[in-house]
Hints:
The protein is built from two helices and five strands. It is α+β, with helices and mostly antiparallel strands.
Amino acid sequence: MDIIDQVARVMEWEKDKIWFSTRFNYSIFSSVAAPGTSQHLSMIALDVTQFADKRVRTILNKHGWFQTIIDDTPHFTYLGRKEKDLPKYGLRPDTKDGFTFWIPNFDR
Ligand SMILES: [Zn+2]
């Protein structure tokens, strides 16, 4: 099934409250990329078990990897820039639970 049909099929099932999120209690599109669109598939993201360790985050940040998805703390996206330069690329920091996430700088 091609990607467009996969997304349409999932949306049809979710209309009937057949959910596919991690706990099967809400839409998969609220927490996970649509099939075929994950940053992981493009190899610009990785999930880090040691995300809570400040030393690990510092090393990743130094090499251009940043947390970018609020509520997905293990997820790091390769932005390839120094942290001080991220605002120049349309990102702003948002802090939650002591973690800094770099997110697009537009109103939510
Ligand atoms: Zn991830």
